[in-house]
Amino acid sequence: MRASSPSNLMSRMITMAANPTMPAAEDQSPARVQRIIWTAQAAKLHAAMPAFIAHQIECRVAAELDAMELPEIFFTSVEVADRVITCDLDSSGTASIFGVIDSAEYEDLVEDAGEDALFGVDWDGVYVTPARTRH
């Protein structure tokens, strides 16, 4: 396993906060990406982008989520080609892509959100909670 990044550590904290009775991540098998879905908002952007860009995004999201080696990831962001992809991974291996946000716009959203940004900012500025990310 590679060294944990701040994003990985934040994903672990969110996972633990959302489900305090869940056994420690070390006691569970890590989830692996089996399929990727694009939620309604992200699907609109997906339909308008070239296929190779969508493929790049999906490959990077799968690689980053798998590298976290967690049993479940409630929310994280992945950077791909000057875009920030907001996503999650459930315990059955379904990764969801919620938003594809320009990097500069994402930084503005996070800056505006302040400390609340630790729980994630969706592309429309709505805070993402674990309940909102369930499939």
Q: SSE order, as H and E?
A: HEHHEEEH
The description of the largest β-sheet is: 4 strands, mixed
Number of helices: 4
Task: Tell me the overall shape.
Answer: globular
Topology:
Layout: H1 6-18, E1 35-38, H2 40-48, H3 51-68, E2 73-80, E3 83-89, E4 94-102, H4 103-113
Parallel strand pairs: 1-4
Antiparallel strand pairs: 2-3, 3-4
Task: Describe the protein.
The protein has 135 residues and is an alpha+beta fold. It has helices at residues 6-18, 40-48, 51-68, 103-113, and strands at 35-38, 73-80, 83-89, 94-102. Strands 1-4-3-2 form a 4-stranded mixed β-sheet. Strand 2 (73-80) and strand 3 form a beta hairpin. The longest helix has 18 residues, at 51-68. 29% of the residues are buried. The model is unreliable at 1-5 and 129-135 (pLDDT under 50).
What is the gist of this entry?
With 135 residues, the chain is of the alpha+beta class. The protein is 38% helix and 21% strand. The chain has helices at residues 6-18, 40-48, 51-68, 103-113; strands spanning 35-38, 73-80, 83-89, 94-102.
List keywords for this structure.
135 residues; disordered N terminus; 4 helices; 38% helix; globular; disordered C terminus; alpha+beta
